[in-house]
């Protein structure tokens, strides 16, 4: 949920909200296979000339008074913790593949290293279908106080999380992980070894996605987690468990409890190359971390300090325009949050790329009688200028409309399907094609009276469109959709809702109180798109079960999913097939098509035993279903990047492989914590064009 939320909330993160260009740099190398490779040289990072600065500055949306490393509190105030923790892996921004410790990248911008080897917490992993996988950690990892940052610490943290989530007395719940050595943790899917628990054999691609990536809360030091774990293990009643959980969630891990010289003598968190050495380095404006010369990534860099300014949103933008910050995420575009005119000359964009996991969709609810009609959905998509929707919402050059209609963003479409298959699919218009839209409405059985579309029963065609007030881009996009459709004769009732109201209206348990909405869209893996999931925060091809107590997963025996989409559909045999009966309802009879149970299909993707050919056939079935029925309409993905101080720092060239990696939703911490950032020895720089 956190990943999906960040993908759709660019206002604070800068991702997708600051815009970008229409061209994406081509990486100079794949970068995903260079693990455990040649390594950097051992040359001292000092040069004959002194660096003009010893500090690189970034902003985090937090403050020293509320910062809390404890992830189990009701209010998540951990923002900034990733700057104080080990890189766990390096996710390629173009492909979403992850590389691990030992990855080497060329660094010609550095005077002392032609290439560097980046250490990450995960060193390697292994997968043993259908249940098991193992993560191997780099044995050089440690907390700031030199205690091992190992698999043991990770298991204790995760075990506390398991109990905090209420699993102590749940009969079918098992804690499926074990630190089988100090640096290797073993995970497994449910094996049906306890009462009420079903076996969950899983395919290799899904297990590989579970292995390695640790994109979440960094494990707290065992000095904090172990006492809670022991109490949970000893608890004999639900009341005891609840009492422990109450204490856990109210236990604050402030900066004093993690600083090496904080006065508490605890040092409960913190790992990675930049260390909070003393509370003397914490002020109301910023916090200064110092480079640990013993950290493997420290040998690459001449940047001695990392200053984290306490600022988010408008305050962060002000600091950047004042030249106080050296690095930020996004792109400098005419319609973005940051424009060229607002920034000092020495703050410039130095890379941008297509956000492989970040975009947006027009989400449709088939409980609305108009949206149940295949030709109406097709007509609405054709009647809207999606280029304008994208530009008005996210700014000129801020995003790029999708090239292919597979339900996925383009990075995954191109990764999993051949060019021939993609080119054979039907392509919906990106600019408004009112002529085609009118034809489709007539085939749906609608006619126009006084400029208004009317169905066969005489009802005026209209739908509701809701957007969250928390994301201004969604509101602007919704206004464009309304204008396009209203001018064409299809009514749209647009409403902006508070974030909590909007979320509630999207939840299956609360009744799905919407017709359509603008919604974030984007996942790292194909099986996350082609999946059955009734969660409000992340849209899958099948939307969960309306008959189950928990609507998260649909059932093959359901007639429809939570959005009233039929579970069994006829899917064309040929990609790109488009013909359907007039007035086609939810489940039309088609020629040259096969009957497909969508739940069985998406579940088969996640089960072991498929050959590559069988897996590809399942993927193609999902793509053909989406392409024909257009149940929703993902329309664009973000163009993003990074910008910062080019006067005091030297950066790689825009297309360099050193810019190919990120953790979470930005490359900034990889650039700094990986040792890629290089303080300059002069202040010459090219002024902006």
TrEMBL record:
Residues 21-30 have a biased composition (Low complexity). Residues 1-50, 190-221 are annotated as: Disordered. Residues 190-201 have a biased composition (Basic and acidic residues). This is Solute-binding protein family 5 domain-containing protein. It comes from Halosimplex aquaticum.
